[in-house]
UniProtKB/TrEMBL annotation, chain A:
Protein name in the entry: TATA box-binding protein-associated factor RNA polymerase I subunit A
Listed InterPro entries: RNA_pol_I_TAF1A/TAFI48_chr, SL1/TIF-IB_Component, TAF1A
Function field: Component of the transcription factor SL1/TIF-IB complex, which is involved in the assembly of the PIC (pre-initiation complex) during RNA polymerase I-dependent transcription. The rate of PIC formation probably is primarily dependent on the rate of association of SL1/TIF-IB with the rDNA promoter. SL1/TIF-IB is involved in stabilization of nucleolar transcription factor 1/UBTF on rDNA. Formation of SL1/TIF-IB excludes the association of TBP with TFIID subunits.
Species name: Gorilla gorilla gorilla (Western lowland gorilla)
Keywords on record: DNA-binding, Nucleus, Transcription, Transcription regulation
Primary subcellular site in the record, as a coarse category: nucleus
From TrEMBL, chain B:
Function noted in UniProt: Component of RNA polymerase I core factor complex that acts as a GTF2B/TFIIB-like factor and plays a key role in multiple steps during transcription initiation such as pre-initiation complex (PIC) assembly and postpolymerase recruitment events in polymerase I (Pol I) transcription. Binds rDNA promoters and plays a role in Pol I recruitment as a component of the SL1/TIF-IB complex and, possibly, directly through its interaction with RRN3.
Lineage of producing organism: Eukaryota, Metazoa, Chordata, Craniata, Vertebrata
Pfam families: Rrn7_cyclin_C, Rrn7_cyclin_N, Zn_ribbon_RRN7
Domain of life: Eukaryota
Taxonomic source organism: Gorilla gorilla gorilla (Western lowland gorilla)
Protein name per Swiss-Prot or TrEMBL: TATA box-binding protein-associated factor RNA polymerase I subunit B
Length: 450, 588
């Protein structure tokens, strides 16, 4: 492997001619001032046209990429390669990464490009700036994965893993971990394929043992590859998921739980809803006690109040004996329906309608009012407008009924949504609507029966 | 034995003190009186500028050919000489007469070497210790007096001869005693023998040669020959790669190695700047102590009347405007020979920016005709449009609005293309410049990488996109092509903007605004300020258009416009009135 040892040596002082500003004399002269300002920014030297060319070229490339003009981008790229020879050592060292990013984009989309040219480009770029070797290797592997070249990707990762050059820095260590983890992920993929194969085989099949052995071997290698990475703070969802799956498969529940708990609760890790979801699903599979499940979902509720697990959370809370849990159950439902994406969620409305009635029957009017106070200004327009009544009825009568019930309870029987649904003559729902009317009369918070 | 050929060798013989030399078969000089053979070889400097032979001669003389890795021993000035040679060749290919290269540029260069004490003098600058004292007399003013022999090769000693031996030389002429030894001592090095010393040399009163300076030499020679190339043309040809400038060193002979300090001397990373080269031209002209240049008369290309015609055609303005520009030129005295001719030995050496000035005259005429206040020109356009609609058979009136629309489109396209070409420009030479031998493999490797990457990406580019460079032309726009839908305004009449009054014609426009009201009283070079937003949009457009054509800053053109106005309205300036009355214009 060849590379440039340049980056590893001290910067070479460039012998550059000093160009001085041409104009002299007193007085304001704006164009001159402009160049003067530019001069200040780069420390006393007039900007060279070479630098102008490359920066103009860069913006042309970016523009072309933005407009998906791969052809033009490639044309400018042809010229942009000269930044690798920039006499400004700072720019020269930054060049390989920029070139890699732009060039790989172009090669990825350009109609005339192919796998081979991408591979050649990646291999070249890896060896131009040693600092980027690992990063490029990883991205190269991802490209290969994208094209379904699993074997090549794996080989690439293995090569990168064993690559050593110069000192080991901490940033490089993370990259190595990442590379290993991706390798682990690929191994997981093979493992999971083997597992599928195994599940199809009969236990008495002569091949069963061989495959089972294979499955075991893979898992051992993979866990070693992944476990290092997921200890470092970060978002490692796919890695964690596959790692846990393997641990579970081999019965190491404690290990799996530890990994998941750590992933969800370690404060050094960035806040990540998926971490809590994984943990919740795991605990659910393990049939953990309700309180434990509630405590996990409570955190998820704080991060993503609109998550679909919230309905599950609500059912858990509803069943709970604790009063504060039941109050929270109401809060959760209102929270879900605050989001535009959930407005047509019939389950949520059904839950809310039912729960509201229950709560009002249970004389917890204060709970409802507490939730309603902050929403009474905007929910009527957001959920219960005449327009919605019409369109909901047209699309989904069941949803319209549930909503109408909620509207009646919250806004009273005079509310337009409620009245509109009431007016609709529907044979099957007739009874239900009548019942609804009665309940509204009885429990609506607008005219408390005092 | 050819006696004629030995004439330029004017040394006295060391044996008999006679000056009568012949040439041996090997090309060495021998004394025809006492048959004493010198170690000197004949040189060919007087016939043509052929660096190659000179370099070979030098190399032979020093007899210090190092290993092939290090290449020949050569001097920085030889590098410049080589660049000048290539530039002269390129100019010849552009159609400039061969005299430019053989006589004018060659002699300017020799004179430069002498004035800067690098050759043709008693104590070349390279002699250590003493400062050079007097120059030999043979190139003093008297020789420049009559034009035909003006730049003929006077008896100057052959340039770059073998200076290693001195047995025959009473002057102890050792032109370049800088030896390789000094180079090995220092860590900073260069491929040329004197690169390190050259980059440190700072001597008062001596114009040091740089790559931009080579263009000053070219322009001086063009000016001397009164060739039909303006400075802006020259620089545009450089930009379009018709004249070697950027990476000119890459065509040096294989054995002339460049590295280290040579990088700073010969490596160029910027396009030449008009003002910079203009200044350098005057500097070099003064330094060379050149006599007054040949007169710029009415039939010269550089005369404003001819240049104005050229630029009127270039920007698609009616031919009839030419009589107006001539009038302005006459009134301002800018067509006078004394005003136009470059005289470096005059008290205040200055030359005229012929191209900028001609363009400024056109701008002034446009202002006289159309006022360019973002309103009057449009109302005139309305009149012209109506008239043209009614009289379709007559010669159409010039419609400023239509002209603007067509020019704006053409200009924007041109400028866009130019910007794209600039962004695509390849600066780096095939021969990478490296700092030291340690860097050499790195530099070459990097070059190889770039070439490989470029090769790879060139397959992604359609072949039409990489078509060869366009052929050089002094025109950037072409309006006479039949097939285009772009109107050609050359034949349009100015009737709409002029009115008859007896025998003379007056401009309909009776107002004028001055580009600047005050001129700096101090002696600084700048005249006025140009802040775009203070001026009308049409004026801005016209300045942008012209300054793009000349590749100069708009402020420079604005300055020139102000100078023309200053000459034209001299009285108004002394009274300091803002608006001037209408100006009578006689139609020719």
């Amino acid at each position: 492997m060849s590379d440039f040892s340049e980056e590893l040596k001290g910067p070479v002082t460039d012998d550059e001619e000093v160009e001085t500003s041409v104009l002299s004399g007193a007085g304001m002269h704006f164009p001159w001032l402009q160049t003067y300002v530019e001069t200040v920014a780069i420390g006393g030297k007039r900007r060279k046209d070479f630098a102008q060319t490359t920066s103009a070229c860069l913006s042309f490339i970016q523009e072309a990429l933005l407009k998906h003009q791969w052809q033009q981008a490639a044309e400018y790229m042809y010229s942009y390669f000269q930044t690798l020879e920039d006499s400004d050592s700072y720019k020269r060292q930054a060049a390989p990464e920029i070139i890699w990013k732009l060039g790989s984009q172009i090669l990825f989309y350009h109609p005339k490009s192919n796998m081979e040219s991408f591979n050649t480009f990646a291999d070249r770029m890896k060896n131009i700036g040693v600092m980027n070797y690992l990063k490029i290797s990883l991205q190269h592997a991802l490209y290969l994965l994208h094209h379904g070249m699993l074997k090549d990707a794996k080989r690439n990762l293995s090569e990168a893993e064993t690559w050593r050059h110069g000192e080991n820095t901490s940033s490089r260590e993370i990259l190595i971990n990442l590379i290993q983890a991706y390798k682990g992920l690929l191994q997981y993929y093979t493992w999971s394929e083997k597992k599928m194969e195994l599940s199809k085989l009969d236990k008495d099949d002569y091949a069963y043992n061989a495959v089972a052995q294979d499955v075991f071997n893979h898992s051992w290698k993979t866990s070693a590859n992944i476990s290092a990475l997921i200890k470092i703070p970060g978002v490692w969802d796919p890695f964690v998921k596959s790692y846990v799956e393997m641990l579970e498969f081999y019965g190491d529940r404690d290990g799996a739980q530890e990994v998941l708990t750590n992933y969800a609760y370690d404060e050094k890790f960035p806040s990540n809803p998926n971490a809590h979801i994984y943990l919740y699903n795991f605990l659910k599979r393990q049939k953990a006690p309700r309180s434990k499940l509630i405590s996990v979902l409570k955190i998820l509720y704080q991060i993503v109040p609109s998550h679909k697990l919230m309905l599950e959370f609500h059912t858990l809370l509803r069943k709970s004996e604790k009063e504060e849990h039941r109050k929270l159950g109401l809060e959760v439902l209102f929270g879900v329906l605050d989001f535009a994406g959930c407005t047509k969620n019939i389950t949520a409305w059904k839950y809310l309608a039912k729960y509201l009635k229950n709560i009002l029957m249970g004389n917890h009017l204060a709970w409802v009012q507490e939730e309603w106070n902050s929403r009474k200004n905007w929910w009527p327009g957001f959920h219960f407008s005449y327009f919605w009544a019409k369109s909901d009825w047209k699309e989904d009568t069941a949803l319209a009924c549930e909503k109408a019930f909620v509207a009646g309870l919250l806004l009273g029987k005079g509310c337009r949504y409620f009245r509109y649904i009431l007016k609709q003559d529907h044979q099957i729902l007739g009874k239900k609507i009548k019942r609804m009317k009665r309940s509204v009369k009885k429990y609506s918070i607008v005219n408390p029966r005092l | 034995m050819d006696l004629e050929e030995a004439e330029e060798f004017k040394e006295r013989c060391t044996q008999c003190a006679a000056v009568s030399w012949g040439l041996t078969d090997e090309g060495k000089y021998y004394c025809t009186f006492c048959h004493n053979v010198t170690e000197r070889y004949q040189e060919v400097t007087n016939t043509d500028l052929i660096p190659n032979t000179q370099i070979k001669a030098l190399n032979r003389g020093l007899k210090k050919k190092n290993n092939t890795e290090k290449g020949w021993d050569w001097y920085v000035c030889e590098g410049f000489q080589y660049i000048l040679y290539q530039q002269a060749e390129a100019l010849k290919n552009l159609g400039v007469g061969p005299e430019l290269k053989n006589d004018v540029l060659h002699n300017f260069w020799k004179r430069y070497l002498q004035k800067s004490k690098q050759a043709y003098c008693k104590n070349p600058v390279y002699t250590t210790g003493r400062k050079p004292t007097v120059l030999e007399d043979n190139l003093s003013h008297s020789d420049w007096a009559s034009e035909p022999e003006l730049l003929s090769d006077v008896s100057c000693p052959p340039f770059l001869e073998s200076g290693a031996e001195s047995q025959s030389d009473i002057h102890t002429r050792k032109p370049f005693p800088v030896s390789k030894a000094s180079q090995s001592e220092t860590s900073v090095c260069s491929g040329s023998l004197d690169g390190v010393e050259y980059s440190q040399r700072k001597e008062k009163g001596i114009v040091k040669m740089t790559v931009p300076q080579t263009l000053a030499f070219c322009y001086l020679s063009l000016l001397w020959q009164r060739e039909a190339i303006t400075l802006s043309d020259l620089l545009r040809f450089v930009e379009e790669d018709h004249i070697p400038y950027i990476n000119a060193f890459q065509h040096f002979p294989e054995q002339m190695k460049l590295y280290g300090r040579d990088r700073g001397i010969f490596g160029i990373e910027s396009w030449p700047d008009y003002e910079d080269i203009y200044k350098k031209t005057i500097e070099v002209g003064t330094f060379l102590d050149l006599p007054r240049f040949p007169d710029i008369t009415k039939d010269c290309y550089l005369h404003p009347n001819i240049l104005c015609m050229k630029y009127l055609m270039e920007v698609n303005l009616p031919d009839e405007m030419h009589s107006l520009t001539c009038h302005v030129v006459k009134m301002t005295g800018m067509g006078e020979v004394d005003f136009l001719t470059f005289d470096p030995i005059a008290k205040m050496a200055k030359t005229v920016k012929y191209d900028v000035q001609a363009v400024a005259v056109i701008v002034v005429v446009l202002k006289l005709l159309f006022l360019l206040d973002d309103s009057f020109e449009w109302s005139l356009s309305n009149l012209a449009e109506k008239h043209n609609e009614k009289n379709k058979k007559d010669k159409p009136w010039f419609d400023f609005r239509k002209w603007y629309q067509i020019m704006k489109k053409a200009f924007d396209e041109k400028k866009q293309k130019w910007e794209e070409a600039r962004a695509k420009y390849l600066w780096k030479s095939e021969k990478p410049l490296y700092y030291s031998f340690v860097d050499k493999p790195v530099a070459y490797k990097k070059r190889e990488m770039v070439v490989n990457l470029q090769k790879q990406f060139s397959t992604l580019v359609e072949s039409t996109a990489t078509a060869g460079k366009k052929s050089p032309s002094s025109f950037q726009f072409n309006w006479t092509e039949e097939d285009t839908d772009r109107t050609c305004f050359h034949g349009h009449s100015l009737q709409g903007v002029l009115k008859e009054k007896g025998q003379s014609l007056l401009t309909k426009n009776s107002l004028y605004w001055l580009s600047t009201q005050k001129f700096c009283r101090c002696y600084c070079t700048h005249v006025t300020t140009y802040e775009e937003s203070n001026y009308s949009l049409s004026y801005q457009f016209i300045l942008n258009l012209f300054s793009f054509l000349l590749r100069i800053k708009t402020s420079l053109l604005h300055e020139e416009v102000s100078l023309v106005e200053k000459k034209l309205f001299e009285k108004k300036y002394s009274v300091k009135r803002k608006k001037s009355r209408s100006k009578k214009v006689r139609r020719h």
